[in-house]
Amino acid sequence: MSNNLAIKLRSGTQHSHAATENIGFMKCFVKGVVDRNCFAKFLGNLYFVYGELESALESHKNHPCISVLYFPELNRKANLHEDLEFYYGSDWLSQIKPSVATENYVSRIRELSEKQPELLIGHAYTRYMGDLSGGQMLQRVVQSTLKLTGYQGTSFYNFEQIPDKKVFKDKYREALDKVPVDDTTADKIVVEANNSFQFNMQMAKELEAILIQSIGEEKFRKLINNETATAN
């Protein structure tokens, strides 16, 4: 019997989704304003997030709720490893560290893994469904702006084990509706999905200072206010 979790997550995160799109960093990103150093730090933060999330999902893969949504083909950590080596070189791990918002994000995932693993579904939904959807457009933006070839430096967005993303997303939504949770727990998963959006927005806001340093305050303000920005 369906618990309508997919619909609850979609409708329950609409506001957060819209708010994320209005973050200055994301507005610039979508408009093709991508600083190489800033993007590398963005991927570095995600490396810590996905490392913790995927470790948690792996450790709970036999949990009655997590097992329904355990799809290793979604894992991003290895792809991020590849990208970070591209941007930083072979000693990339010694050159990255999580930002404050990233540390908070990772701590929340760890807390849920220890106390309420079923709520990890909210974080998995927010990240992976976003990567399979808008993330594909962002990959093309980065590829074009930084003049990259193929998935060079953007392997994060390449789901090599998922050839048809639409089919997979439908499969994922169907799986969500099979997760054995009651309405109260389903509502808590939606709350956690919104928490995930908040953590992601905080990480994006932290990166704005780096972007502003690169493109200038004036251009940044024009871009986020939908004005015509003159090139530097």
Task: Describe the protein.
The protein is mainly alpha-helical and 232 residues long. It has one domain (5-224): Up-down Bundle (Heme Oxygenase, Chain A). The chain is 66% helix and 0% strand. It is built from 11 helices and no strands. It has helices at residues 5-12, 14-21, 24-30, 36-59, 77-88, 100-115, 120-132, 134-145, 165-176, 183-215, 217-224. Helix 2 (14-21) packs parallel to helix 10 and helix 4 runs antiparallel to helix 5 (77-88). The longest helix has 33 residues, at 183-215. The radius of gyration is 18 Å and the shape is globular. The chain starts with a helix and ends in an 8-residue tail after the last helix. The relative contact order is 0.20. Residues 228-232 have low confidence and may be disordered.
* Silhouette: globular
Q: Output mean pLDDT.
A: 94
Distance between the termini: 57 Å
Any idea how many domains?
1
What is the tally of beta strands?
A: 0
Strand content is under 5%
Poorly predicted spans: 228-232
Instruction: State the CATH topology.
Output: Heme Oxygenase, Chain A
Query: Could you give me the name of the CATH homologous superfamily?
Result: Heme oxygenase-like
Radius of gyration, CA atoms, in whole angstroms:
18 Å
Query: Mind telling me which CATH architecture this is?
Result: Up-down Bundle
The profile of the biggest β sheet is: none
Q: Pairing-aware structural class of the strands and helices?
A: mainly alpha
Please give the share of residues in helix. Answer: 55-70%
CATH class: Mainly Alpha
- Element pattern in H and E: HHHHHHHHHHH
Number of helices: 11
